[in-house]
């Protein structure tokens, strides 16, 4: 057994695997929505919550998928009622939603259920690209959805954007970035396309753009968003001051978190677990598919890896509190080399990646594995 390390646990992730349609790039745990299957799923989810998660208020709750808003209004109300013990008093309750689902009656249910943050699957502001990747909304619909949310007081809105899509031009990407700025939303997440084997793109042999084009798109986004006042607080995430994702910051700070639902993951102390992706197993109460014991070395590296994704970097005090040894003693050569290369910055409180280090983060982290 590895030495015990004490991490904070104030977060709950809830996975809803249903979608109204399957996007071409997606390989997450998801199926097309079926009302009867969704009812069964919510019943089993309630049982998993009752047995595995203490009934206590969390700091953050994140409802992801799939697409949680693929549920019927009654099912969504049932889900949020089920989560009340965890969401009451929470600082941040996020739900993922698609623009075409945002209607006044849906917003009322979200507000009543304690949701105070929306992660909107925008993906692009180009209607041609949206159709190509299997999205069911247009940019005008997204704009109208955001207007409805803002008018209802749900102003803490994030949008996801994908770049390096097959055939995507630099001009289309530039226009998407300008389109996002016109929405006046406080958070944006960027994702480069990864071709997953079991996605439609994977099955049809599609490929992302070349590495140089992909990198130039990323750096253009960094420049445009920072000039517009967004803080680049994590390698793929940008926010106005005060709007960073509290839930995701728990991941990046390497805190513990509960994960429930089909295909969800969690971390509790020296263990990480992955839930089954099989409905039959899940409905029979065989929730966890794999439980991995983390060695002390695993935990130290993962804490460095996750924290270096953020602009704030790794807290030296927190690392030493948890592991009873300074990070500079555990990784002296990797840190020294990173400092010499200009990839890392070290002060009395934090070890952080520089801008150049952030761009080469995989290379930087390889030094910590040697």
From TrEMBL:
Belongs to the anaerobic coproporphyrinogen-III oxidase family. HemW subfamily. The lineage of its organism: Bacteria, Bacillati, Bacillota, Erysipelotrichia, Erysipelotrichales. One of its GO terms (cellular component) is cytoplasm. It comes from the Bacteria. One of its GO terms (biological process) is porphyrin-containing compound biosynthetic process. The keyword Iron-sulfur applies. This is Heme chaperone HemW. It is found in: Cytoplasm. Probably acts as a heme chaperone, transferring heme to an unknown acceptor. Binds one molecule of heme per monomer, possibly covalently. Binds 1 [4Fe-4S] cluster. The cluster is coordinated with 3 cysteines and an exchangeable S-adenosyl-L-methionine. SMART domains: Elp3 (SM00729). Pfam families: HemN_C, Radical_SAM. Transmembrane segments: none annotated. Residues 4-231 form the Radical SAM core domain. InterPro entries: Coproporphyrinogen-III_oxidase (IPR034505), Elp3/MiaA/NifB-like_rSAM (IPR006638), HemN_C (IPR010723), HemW-like (IPR004559), rSAM (IPR007197), rSAM_horseshoe (IPR023404), rSAM_sf (IPR058240). Keywords: 4Fe-4S, Chaperone, Cytoplasm, Heme, Iron, Iron-sulfur, Metal-binding, S-adenosyl-L-methionine. It comes from Holdemania massiliensis. One of its GO terms (molecular function) is 4 iron, 4 sulfur cluster binding.
